[in-house]
Target: Vitamin B12-dependent ribonucleotide reductase
Amino acid sequence: MKQENVAAMSEQAISREVLLEKYAKGDEQSVADVRRRVARALAGIEAEPARYEAAFFDALQRGFIPGGRINSAAGTELKATLINCFVQPVGDAVSESEGGKVGIYEALLQAAETMRRGGGVGYNFSRIRPKGARVKGTHSRASGPVSYMRVFDRSCETVESAGSRRGAQMGVLNIEHPDVEDFIHAKDQGDLKNFNISVGVSDAFMQAVEADGPWQLVHAVEPASDAFPEAFRRDDGLWVYRTVRARELWRQIMESTYDHAEPGVLFLSQINRDNNLSYCEVIESTNPCGEQPLPDYGCCDLGSINLAAFVEHPFTRRARFDFKAFETVVRSAIRMLDNVLDLTVWPLPEQQREAQAKRRVGLGFTGLGDALILLQIAYNSPQGRQMAAKFAETMRDAAYDASVDLAIEKGAFPLFDADNYLAEPHCASRLPEAIKARIRQHGIRNSHLLSIAPTGTISLAFADNASNGIEPPFSWYYTRKKRMADGSQQEYRVEDHAYRLYRLNGGDVEKLPPYFVSALEMSALDHMQMVAAVAPYIDTAISKTVNVPADYPFDEFEHLYLEAWKAGLKGITTYRPNSVLGSVLSVEPAQAAPQDLLASQEGDPDRRIALVSTPSPALASLKWPHRPRLKGGNPSWTYMIEHDDGAFAVFVGHVENGHTQPFECWVNGNEQPRGLGALAKTLSMDMRCRDKAWLALKLDALAHTMGDRRYTLELGERTLHASSAAAVLGQVVRHRVEQLGALDMHADDTSPVMDALFAKKEPKTGTDGTMSWSVDVSNPQTGDDFVLFLKELVLPDGQRRPFSMWLAGSYPRELDGLCKMLSLDMRVIDPAWIGMKLRKLLNYAEPQGDFFARVPGSDKSQSWPSTVAYVARLLIHRFAMLGLLTEDGVPVENMGVMVPEQGDLFDSVQMETVAPVAGKPCPECGHHALIKKDGCEFCTACGHIGACG
Model:
């Protein structure tokens, strides 16, 4: 498959939804719209804006993805920072500054302002005196750093960041602090919910662990003598509060991390040893994601390049990576990130001064796992690590060389000192000699250039869900359940980019090649070794979460951290599912129940009660759950239908966004048959689907609606005949959507609604018949007087479901078409679908059609706007009686897809590869299934992607 075919792939539904929710502004409707805004904004400070706008847009189109804050705020009126994260100092004093560290409450105020502007904050709390230390001024004892962290925690909880982004925080305490044990266990009982926490570890401590030696817990402030009677002062002036066994302290860290994924471990000696600016700064903390070790007031100005976009001829012997094109994009990306430092709003002047003095940026990559798959290389193989190292080395060399070019043009960063900057063992000392010679001659614009961050939602929105950052794919596909504004849930099938490309290229996804290796199919050591392979080329750090299974042996888990230190890593984060974090609600197999319906399978397999494949839940197919609000309006097509009883018009509206999409129909005219407007209303929902086969099925069914009138239409070159206005509507709408090409099938088209039908045609009863539910309906205003019938069956899982409705008596015959439509909707396995259709009809009104009738399930009565609205309410009530919907028409349980436990009549299905995993409560769905995946919060129950870090 050639690379140009990749660009032709249609976007995933979830990618567009995330783009519109998180990044698009104003009238923006596409990735290209967002990229144009960002390119224009970042080029605006250049001497030649038009030239660089074109170059920047080209880089964005070819794979560069700026950080989330840049995509969401650049070029807008939002007064938010374009910088994702900061590190800020915290001193020991309550208010005044000491030794360059602001007091605790001044630090709190600065942090609140930073988070209000959209930035996350990291801190090292080690300066704060230990619990029990003397407070001379008040003759009291200190309460310790953990108590003050709670104040920061509550502040973060209260302050909502710009753009409705909740603030993120990293709290660090050094391993020698006397309160380190309290810090290790601070989150055991769910405290400090708005913090990630990490222990800052030195080489001296790790050596003491290896030797099983003693470890002194020390601080500059004297302890109260009665609290620590054995305390003494060392020669270096620090007070030794007590001495512990290093290995015992290390074991507490490991056990806590094993049980609930925190604290993380930062190898501060290695961080400072490798730092290009160790001659003028000390690093004590990182940003909340951990990929940016930063000094006080330092910031991370981030962006990532999608490696998968540079693979040509994927899955073939000719597969190759275009390193030349990659280098070109790296160079443009560095210039763009450098411009961010001059364009952004700075929450604090101290942050601006720090950034201007050093001009740190952090360019990384995403899609590593997918790029290797496209190249037919296994992530956990030596070849995979070698190729990843080559990607990182190429990126490093191009980035540093581009920064030298910027220094020639715009000047080096003010604190540049060539000899110290290039001294060993700094990352810059490992550059090729030619680049080092250029740096000595011209300087360099940016002190640091590289950082591999988690890419969470930007990968989903801008890279077709390419694998996150340095990670392998976590799963090949899963179902994302997203809560909508009206309380309902919309569901999406989310596919990994490489898997999706392989499937659309005709690959056998039932038996994937061996180079398709997911995160949970490889060992923890494989994950760590990939970081070790790439780390020598990255001048800040790498965010990576090592996910290990629940039964992973503790001894191996502990060994993993020791190996990470020995390999020269700057930190490591793991996640292991466990009972401490909570449990996922289990879905027990349904009890078998006798069937009261026998489907005729012999003559017509479409009447079988079965699902032949795992459906992508039907609601995921909706392009717009509600009528889209189009500020500029939309084009529509009109057709007049003439009849002896009068004339009425049919309208079909569409939008144009890269391709034409019809999305609604309606009828107009005083002589339109009653009930036809309701039929058009529910048909409009089907037109908003991404399921062409479903819309064709609906229109075919409608076109065969029988009635008591005769219509003859000249439509295009065809003469159409029909006996009902419903049939006319179906034929006219079908004519128009075919004109627009909306029913043309393509290779990558999916059928999420069709796949979710438990019967494509109405199941036929055996000789024993089936159950039905009936209600008398009478509207004196219109003369409607009929019986509503619902045929019902028991599915193999024991659940009773309506599957067909019809009317008998006096009513507008156009409602027969509505019965056909809603009967098909009832056979979508997830009741969220029929619930949505019925809720849309509750407010359907007719002139002089309102009447007073009893509320279903109640002794009260109320006025109803039409007969159709009352029928919709009756149907909702029946679904509520069966425990499928609430009386408001909202699903009691979001079923998603069928599961094998539902009986032998259901064909074998391949289930989602992400099984629910124990974790924290998810803010989206409420299940205890929120874990850390690829550095970001991820819900294994609903697919929600939350904070990274």
In short: The radius of gyration is 32 Å. The chain has 28 helices and 38 strands.
